Amino acid sequence: MGSVYIRELIRKYNNEEASAAERLIVETWYDNLNSTGVFNDENANSQKMEQMEARLLARIDKGPIVRRIPFSYSKLIAFAAAIIVLISISVLFLHNYSMNSVNVAKKNVIVPGANKAFLVLGNGKRIDLDSTSTGLIAKSAGVAINVGATGKIVYNGRANVVEMNSLSTPKGGMYQVVLPDGSTVMLNSSSVLTFPNLFKGDSRSVKLSGEGYFEVAENKDQPFYVEANGVNIRVYGTGFNVMAYPEEQFVKTTLVHGSVRVGNNSVMSMLLPGQQALMDAKEKKIQIRRPSLEEVLAWKNWEFRFEGADITAILRQISRWYDVDVIYKGAVSDHRFYGVIPKKSNANDLFEILEETRQVHFEIQGRKVIVINGPREEKNNQ
Q1: Average pLDDT for residues 170-183, to the nearest whole number?
Q2: Residues 228, 233: Cα–Cα separation, whole Å
C-alpha cells in the first residue's frame, strides 16, 4: 500500500467523501496514532500529513493494529458508524477489492434491541416493561414494586409472604432490577432471573439462565448464592458477571471485584478479581483464566467487543440482541475478528462491516440471516 493511497483516504475523510469502509480505516488509524500528537487538530498541515503517512507505513510494516476506542471523537459520533477491526492488515485495508458499498439487502432493516422485559409475580401476574415504564407497577404481598427514572425495578417494603418472582428479557431486551436486599442485577438478552420478594433465613439464593451482571450487597450473616445451569456461585459481597446460556459450552463466571467461589458438588474454586471460571457442568471441570474484562462486560455498556472471536460466537450474540435466526450455508469461516461495534447499530450496518472482511457474507430474509463463507460475488454491470 503506497503513500498515494493513504493521502487519498485522508483527503476523502477530511472532505466527508469517504465511504463507510474508508471511514473505518481512517478512524482506526486515528485512534492508534492519537497519542503521538499527529492529530492535535482536524486541519492537519502538510508537515503533519507527512508525519502521519510515515507513521502509518511504519505500522503497516509491523503488523496488525489492535483497536482501542474511547468513543469520544466528534467524527466518530457524527458518523455513528459500527466499527470493527480485522485480524489482518491486508484485510483491514481492503487492499484486494474495491471499496464500493456492500450489497446487504436493506429492504428489511433489523433494528437493535432495547430496555424491555417482563416481570412475573408470585400470583402469576405478568407485567410487561419497556423503556417508558416508570412509577408504581405493582403491589404484591405487601411490597410496592416500582420502576425508577433510571429504568430499574425496585422492591420497596418488607413482604408478609415469601413469593418467587421472575424477571425475563426476550431476544433484543435488557433490564435491571434492584433485589429486596439492595443487590442489583442487569440482565442481558434471552435471560431469566428467579428470586424471592423477601430473602429470609440464613442465605439469599437466586437462579439465572442467560447472562447477568451482579453487584451484591454485603451481608455476612446471609450469604448470597447464584445457581446457573448446574453451577453454584457463592458470593462474598462483590461484582461479577455470569454467562450461562444453554447453547454455550461453558458457564462463565467473571469476577470484577470482591470474591466468589464457583463449582458444584464435585469441584470448587475461589476466584480473584480479574479471573474467570469456565465450568462445564457435565464434565465437572473448572478452567481458570484471565479474560479481557472490557470484552466480558461490553454487553452491559451497550457494545459488542470482539477480541479474537470467531464468526459463530459473534453471531450467537447478534442472534440474541437482534432477535434473528442464524442459518449457516456450507463451511463456516475460521477467521478471527477484533473490534468494537455499538449495540445501537442496525444489524444491517453490522453485517455490512463484517462483509468488508471478505471472509463471510449474508443473505437476509425477514428475520432469518443466512451466513455464507467467503466474499459476495460482485455483479458485472453490462
Answers
A1: 96
A2: 8
Q: What is the mean pLDDT of the chain?
A: 79
Give CA torsion, residues 343, 346, 347, 353, to 10 deg.
-90
Helices (H), 162-241: none
In CATH, what class is 114-295?
mainly beta
Please report, as a single letter, which amino acid is at residue 114: A
User: How far is it, in rounded angstroms, from Cα 314 to Cα 360?
Assistant: 12
Q: For position 81, what pLDDT does the model report?
A: 31
pLDDT exceeds 90 at position 296 = yes
Backbone φ, ψ for residue 8 (5° rounding): -65, -40
Distances (CA, A) of 302 to 85, 115, 205, 296: 18, 11, 28, 12
Quick one: cell of 32?
492508534
Q: Is the pLDDT of residue 100 over 60?
A: no
* Strand partners for 279: 251, 286
Residue pair 76/340 in contact by the 8 Å Cβ criterion: no
Three-class DSSP category at 378: coil
H/E element, 79: helix 74-79
Please give the distance of CA 369 from its chain centroid, rounded to a whole number.
Answer: 19
Give the list of residues 6+ apart from residue 355 with CB closer than 8 angstroms, or none: 102, 104, 361, 362, 375, 376
Helix (H) or strand (E) holding 21: helix 20-33
Q: What percent of the chain has pLDDT over 70?
A: 72
Residue ranges of domains in the chain: 3-79, 114-295
Which DSSP helix (H) or strand (E) runs through 319? helix 311-322
Task: List Cβ neighbours of 138 (8 Å cut-off, separation of 6 or more).
Answer: 119, 121, 125, 127, 144, 145
* Cα distance between residue 169 and residue 190, in whole Å: 5
59 vs 41, 66, 310, CA distance in Å?
21, 11, 25
